Amino acid sequence: MNWKAVARSAIGTSHQKQGIVCQDYGNYCSFGDVIVGAVADGAGSAKHSDVGSKLAVETVLKCFADINESPQTQAFSQPLSEEEAQKVFTKIVTQVIAELQKQANEEDYSINDLACTLLVFLATPYYVAAMQIGDGFIVIRSKESEYQLLFQPDKGEFANETTFITSKNALEEMQVEVFPKKQEFICASTDGLEKVAIRLSDWQPFSPFFKPLEEYLHEPVNQEDEDKYLMEFLNSERLNSRTDDDKTLLLCLFYESKIQ
Question: What are the beta bridge partners of residue 129?
Fold first, then answer.
């Protein structure tokens, strides 16, 4: 039993025209049959949000790795209750904020210059625990079921408004869920893909977007071909005609037999 995963980001056409770097970041780590994934979208108004999004994601992964290596824990072998998940994610978000503050202090700028959203999931063969601060989406699918959106993206009163991890109310706005069932497929993404992946009228995942991505994970491909497929998709003219924002995809597939 194992996980196959890939994470890629592509700069939005609006950022290319303005000479702005990609402010998205996504990554994952695995230990045994557990995988942790995180994606972050830097605030367009924040001067160093590209630094903030990468630091936030890497801090999350380091925190989970540290927890896993602690002799006092059983490395998430037993399903977490919602209360336990809330405590774990609160502790990790608090650490992320501390790391962002440390970075801001060292570089002599405001922590708000590192503002970003943050989505995190912990998946095992037995359950998935996830959290979200801000917009973007996490979609899952268990065997013989439909794609399911975990959280409704946090959209504020005004256009392009959301909660960032640097917001004073970040922990209060953090959404947490535990799903006590094995998931075959997980997709986490920043909001650049919301309008093409999620039906905004009722917040239902658009199956024709996710199905080819899941099928792609089943294919036995080397890393070079893997990069080519996803980057061509993320940079495609068809996709860029519908969204000009940065785009990040973090895809995970659970399989019980080895994919060649």
Answer: 122, 178
CB atoms within 10 A of CB 130: 23
What is the per-residue pLDDT across 43-85, written as a single tens digit (0 to 9) for each?
Answer: 988 999 999 999 999 999 999 998 877 665 556 878 889 999 9
Residues listed for the chain? 260
Which residues on adjacent β-strands are paired with residue 141? 185
- Region 140-157: mean pLDDT is 87
First-to-last CA distance in the chain? 14
Q: Which residues contact 115 (CB under 8 A, 6 or more apart)?
A: 42, 43, 45, 46, 49, 52, 164, 165, 166, 167
Note the pTM of the prediction, 2 decimals.
0.93
193: which DSSP letter? G
Measured CA distances, 188 to 5, 58, 153, 158 (Å): 11, 16, 12, 24
Three-state DSSP class for 252?
A: strand
C-alpha to C-alpha distance for 192 and 194, rounded to whole angstroms? 6
* Contact assessment for residue 12 and residue 239, using Cβ atoms and an 8 Å cutoff: no
Q: What are 144's two structure tokens? A: 């013989």
Partners of residue 252 on adjacent β-strands? 5, 186
Q: What mean pLDDT is reported for the chain?
A: 90
Would you say residue 260 has pLDDT above 60? no
Cα–Cα distance, 91 to 84 (Å, whole number): 11
C-alpha span between 208 and 220 (Å, rounded): 21
Of 151, 78, 97, 154, residue with least CA distance to 120: 151
